Every structure is written in C-alpha cells, then in structure tokens.
Amino acid sequence: MSLSRGLLRMLAFTCGITIANVYYAQPLLDTIAHDLRVGRPAVGALVTATQVGFAAGLVFVVPLGDILARRRLITALLAVDAIALAAAAAAPALWMLSSVAVLIGTSSVVVQMLIPYAATLAPAAERARTIGVLMGAVLLGVLLSRTFAGVVADLAGWRCVYAAAAAAMVVLAVTMSRVLPPTGREVEIGYLAQMRAVLRLARSSPVLRWRALIGAAQFAMFSCFWSTVPFLLAGRPFAFTEAEIGLFALVGAAGAGVVLLGGRLLDRLRELRWQITGAAIVLLLISFGMLAAGIDGLAWLVVGALLMDVCCQVVHVTNQAVIYDLVDAARSRLTTVYMTTYFAGGALGTTAGVMAYDRAGWIGANAVSAGFCLVAILGWLAVRRHEAARTGGVAG
User: CA angle 384-389-391, nearest 5°?
Assistant: First the structure.
C-alpha cells in the first residue's frame, strides 16, 4: 500500500487536531488557577500531568501500533480522548482535572502512531518530506491550540475549550474509522515480545539513544518557554488577556512553514543532518538570550519566540528523519523510545520552568532553558561518531 496525497492530508489534519489536546491548558493556567482557587505551582502540575500521561502512552500504548490493526486502535483511542476531554470540561476541582489530564495525554498518543505509519508507507526518498508534513501539522496544532484556547476561554470560559475539543474528537473518531484502510498487524508477535523488542532496540542503537536525549532537551526548552510565558504576559508591563496570550502563540507559526519546507531539504541534504542539528541548537541558545531581554519589551519576545520555535522544529524533524532510517519496519518501536524520552524532557522542562519562574521570575526560567541547551549540545557531540560509523564517513 502507498501513501496517497489525500491520506497524507487526512493524517496530518488528525495529528494537528489531536495534539492540540495536550496543550490547551498552557495559556489557561492563570484562569484555571483563579477559577479553582489554587496557586501557580499547583496549576502548573496540570500541564505536567498531561505530558506524563502522554509519556506513559508512548511507553505502553504506542507499541500496540505494530501488533494490532491500526484502524480499530486509532478509532478507539480517539473515542477515549473524547470522553476524557468531556470529563475535563466538567471537572469541579484541580485534582480531578489533573487526573483526567493524564488520560487525555495517554489517549492523544494516537499522533505518534500516525507518524511512523506514514513514514513506513512513504518511499525512502520522500520520508523526511512526509515527516515534515505531519510535523508541520503537529506544530500548527500546538500553536493554534493556544490561540483557540485563549480566544474561546475569553469568550465563554475555559471549560468550553475542553467541551469543543471533545466534540472534535468524536468527529475524528468517526472519520478515521472510515478513511483508514483496513490493514492487519505489521508484526505477528505478542505485547510482551514487542516490549522486549523495544528494549533491545534501545540497547543496541546508540544513535537512537543520543538522538532521544537531544530531543528531550529540545522539548524541555520548548515546554519551559510556553509554560511560563503566559505568566509573564498576564503580569506587568504587558497585562494581556487570555485571548491576547493565545494570539501571541501565532508568532511561532513560521516554524510550521519551515518544517513543511525543511522536510524536502533534509531529503536532499541527508549527509548534513548532524551539522544542521548542531547549528539549530546553537541558535536555540541565542534565542533564549533574546527571550530573556523580552522581560520589558514585546519585540524581543516575538523575535526570540520565532527563532526558538523554528529551531526546535528543525531539531525534532531532523532527529526523526535520522531514527526512522535505522530500521525498515516496526517503526513504532523507534517512536516509543524516542518520543518517551522526548516527552519526559517536556514534563521536566515544564516543572523546572514553572518552579524557576515562581522563585526567580522570567530570567530564572530562561536560565533553565539555557541549561537544557547545553545538555542538547553534549548529546549532539556524543552522537557524531555513531552516525559517522553508520554512514561510513562524516556524520550527517
């Protein structure tokens, strides 16, 4: 079976709408804290809970993508997501909202089943482009989720955000049950054997391990920024409303365009992937210097956020282009290792960022992000010889 343009567009649309569920809470933290009468550190745990749930889904649910019929599995997960989002809309207390957030994160891992599925269907010469299309949709979903959440919350309250998301998941569940082809299992093994295969792959592939560390550090920076910038924008001197905070997320939309175009370029410059990763990480470090200067000026925040979003996505797409070339089948195993580490980094970045902001303000949060940049640089240096060994020359 090949990957048609129509199916690719549908997979991309589903990825974008579904991944948004993981990020709706970020621009609403101040509003939810006020409505449920809790402090900033406590409400920050809501974002962490969603990301931890996503990470748990990556470990225990994504491996099912290789050993179960994908159409039924994806449809079931979208239905569970709809139920969890509806429960979030009705949650009367933070503890209940946080508990449901774990389930929202876990069921939203359907996105990480669709990406390796598309990578498997795409020919090798178009794999990076295909990943770029889906990752562009994911980035748009992440960015527009904040805009959507901010605008809807400003007009009708934060609970309506989750209610609308639940309705969208119902529509997607029905649509995907009809659009996805009825394929069988990719690998004829049981769940425990699949989990052992995931562990063997992690142990045997240093490229996968180091690329996963780079991805985790990159997502920690990304999460640290987007979890703390609403606090900065809500306070002085900006005093933004929820809608304005949501609209601020649109400054990162350029990153989606770069990802969509960059996938084609990565297919042509396969031998330069290592160098491209390093350049993006260095620019990330520079971007957080710009963002730190934005404490009193919106222009620095806008420019810094643009650069940060673009570089984060370049690193992420390059990482995936590298790891999906490591094997020819059962790519959900690669996704489990890489994305579990990736989202663990995101949860750490959110927690560390909110704590740093609470104690040292905006400068403290950016210092934490800069520290994660240094971790990414160490991983980038370490992976060079392993990638060079695979290609028989200079790492790329």
Answer: 95
Check: CB of residue 373 under 8 Å from CB of residue 245.
no
For 333-343, how does the pLDDT look when each residue is reduced to its tens digit (9 = 90+)? 888 899 889 98
The Cβ of residue 291 has, within 10 Å, a number of other Cβ atoms equal to 27
pLDDT tens, residue by residue, 96-140: 888 999 999 999 999 988 888 887 777 777 777 787 788 888 878
Helix axes 298-323, 273-293, angle to 10 degrees: 160
User: Do 181 and 314 contact (CB within 8 A), yes or no?
Assistant: no
Counted domains in the chain: 1
> In whole angstroms, what is the distance from residue 43 CA to residue 52 CA?
15
CATH of the domain at 307: 1.20.1250.20
Q: 192 is in which domain, residue-wise?
A: 5-391
Cα distance between residue 171 and residue 381, in whole Å: 45
The answer as to whether 273 is a domain residue is: yes
Task: Give the CA angle between residues 374, 375, 378 to the nearest 5°.
Answer: 90
pTM of the predicted protein model: 0.77
- Residue count (the chain): 396
CA atoms of 42 and 155, how far apart (whole Å): 25
By the 8 A CB rule, do 26 and 321 touch?
no
Residue 237 confidence (pLDDT): 83
Rg over alpha carbons for the chain, rounded to the nearest Å, is 20
Distances (CA, A) of 191 to 53, 187, 195, 329: 20, 10, 6, 17
Domain assignment present for residue 396? The answer is no
